[in-house]
Write a structure and sequence with these properties.
Structural class: alpha/beta
Shape: globular
Low-confidence stretches: 122-128, 225-281
CATH superfamily of the largest domain: Queuine tRNA-ribosyltransferase-like
CATH topology of the largest domain: TIM Barrel
Mean pLDDT: 86
Strand order of the largest sheet: 4-5-6-11-12-13-15-16
Number of helices: 16
Strand content: 15-25%
Distance between the termini: 40 Å
RNA sequence: GCGUCGGUGGCAGAGUGGUCAAUUGCAACUGACUGUAAAUCAGUCGCCCUUCGGGCUACGUAGGUUCGAAUCCUACCCGGCGCA
């Protein structure tokens, strides 16, 4: 993986750049579509690509439980498995420590409005009143499967091992996404834990890479080029568990280095993924995750500690109060090394995207476009609409006037109207969620693309103002 | 015509003397959703008053019994089924 910055904002930390992976180029800032279980819900990869998505993010916890990371590995990695030819990422399962732990069964989410009375009241978590599916143990987290109740202990090492099996281009360190309702003492403990886990994640990542390199070198007798080709030709996949995946043999780039495959390759070109085995951990980049809640000192400390480690990039995690988000991101990005990419985890409302970019974020992922879509809320340039509202029953206009997505603008007149989409939702038709997700994904990915372009064109501020003044009615 | 069963809020369908403006589901209306436990969840859903709460009108229609009726009785109207 290689990252280079093309242009920076004059005021602020924002930048436009290019991130090259073994499976294609990501123009940043970029919006990453969430495909937790190796599928962007309700969409096939062609629809995802057509919506403008450059990267898809899967989830370690979910794929480990189902179908199992070994199966994904056998399939040739998450991209091959799900038929997504572009770059992929996997989250470490750190978010599930929160969503299935402190937040389980409660009205706490990734973003809390500070007006919420329960916010900032430190809760005592006795497990009797709210059973958790995730409990933090001595050196990892015990998960009780939400699928069948089975117990699984995930350590940082385990998370990295799973992620290597899943074979994404960018993977994340195992962290603890803390609840904003935890008190300062807990936040400190959790942060130290996340830092220890970061180091262990990194060590395991390096260990796995060198282990495979050793196997490679032994197998090849330290030869290069030619020998590799021979080896590659002589072995077909699946013969032995110890055999190296083919692309590893072909390329064998080190983590953090640029694969020759990537240079000049189109993001989704047919050559991006030639064989089932060509997706390996050799090309994986590991991102460390900064936590620290809403405390400036903790955020800054975390940024310093995590950036002192040899990560390829960084994630910014945590459950925020909406009001705290921009300052937290800024504190962190002022410290993180400029030359490495930063991913703001789980963030994705339009106003948040502007905020993130302005404060130096290169990558975003968020479930909102697809989840809101499936639940009947659609993005428009004039704000979100709930398509099942009465007023849209006979509205035969497009979801969003002027939108270029498949749903809104099939060549000329024919396209799906608000009335039709509303009808699909009322009828509980599957197509409703699909069309709504296509539209929302297109809206968000293109918004981020437009933000990127505005940086390149030097008119970010104007674009931000003109967009938000319409959007935030 | 006789017999029989039944008529409950937009629909389906509970309730069968007081705790019933009436369980529940659907529909309808509104809202929520930020590294997906989510094609999910929540609220409203007879009318009026300002929330607590109070008032009014309601369980086919009209009477009646009772302190009190959606619930019991009588007549009528309507529907299903059976027999003529």
């Amino acid at each position: 993986m290689q990252f280079r910055i093309e242009k920076k904002l004059k005021n602020g930390l924002g930048r436009a750049g290019v991130l090259e992976t073994a499976h294609g180029v990501i123009k940043t800032p970029a919006f990453v579509a969430v495909g937790t279980k190796a599928t962007v819900k309700s969409l096939n990869p062609e629809q995802v690509r057509e919506a403008g998505v450059q990267v898809v993010l899967g989830n370690t916890y979910h794929l480990y439980l189902q179908p199992g990371d070994e199966i994904v590995k056998k399939a040739g990695g998450i991209g091959k498995f799900m038929n997504w030819e572009g770059p992929t990422m996997t989250d470490s399962g750190g978010f599930q420590v929160f969503s299935l732990g402190a937040a389980y069964g409660k009205d706490i989410s990734k973003i809390t409005k500070i007006t919420d009375p329960s916010f900032l009241i430190p809760e005592r978590f006795d497990d009797s009143d709210a059973p958790r599916l995730a409990k933090i143990g001595a050196d990892g987290v015990s998960f009780k499967s939400h699928l069948d109740g089975s117990i699984h202990y995930i350590t940082p090492e385990k998370s990295i091992q799973i992620q290597h099996n899943l074979g994404a281009d960018i993977i994340f360190a195992f962290d603890e996404c803390t609840s904003p309702t935890e008190d300062l003492k807990y936040q400190k403990e959790a942060l130290e834990r996340t830092h220890r886990w970061a180091e262990r994640s990194l060590n395991e990542h390096k260990r796995l890479i060198s282990e495979r390199q050793n196997i490679l070198e032994r197998t090849l007798g330290r030869s290069d080029g030619d020998g590799q080709r021979k080896f590659s030709a002589e072995n077909s996949r699946g013969e032995s568990e110890n055999i190296l995946p083919e692309a590893a043999v072909k390329e064998a780039p080190l983590a953090g280095s640029l694969s020759p495959l990537a240079s000049g390759a189109l993001p989704l070109g047919p050559s991006a993924c030639e064989t089932p085995g060509d997706r390996t951990s050799f090309t994986a980049a590991l991102f460390g995750i900064v936590q620290g809640g809403r405390e400036k000192e903790l955020r800054q400390e975390s940024a310093r500690v995590i950036s002192s480690m040899d990560f390829d990039g960084f994630g910014i995690g945590g459950s925020f109060a909406k009001e705290d988000m921009s300052s937290a991101v800024k504190w962190v990005n002022e410290i993180l090394p400029e030359e490495k990419p930063r991913h703001l985890l789980g963030i994705g409302e339009p106003e948040d995207l502007f905020m993130g970019v302005e404060n130096g974020v290169d990558l975003f992922d968020c479930v909102l476009p697809t989840r809101l879509g499936r639940n009947g809320t659609l993005y428009t340039k004039n704000g979100k609409i709930i398509i099942t509202n009465k007023i849209f029953r006979e509205d035969f206009g497009p979801l969003d006037e002027g939108c270029g997505c498949y749903v809104c603008s099939v060549p000329e007149a024919p396209r799906y109207s608000r009335a039709y989409i509303a009808h699909l939702f009322r009828g509980k038709e599957m197509l409703a969620g699909t069309l709504a997700s296509i539209h929302n994904l297109y809206f968000i990915t293109h918004l981020v693309d437009d933000i990127r372009q505005s940086i390149l064109d030097g008119n970010f501020s104007e674009f931000k103002r003109s967009f938000l003044e319409k959007y935030l009615i």
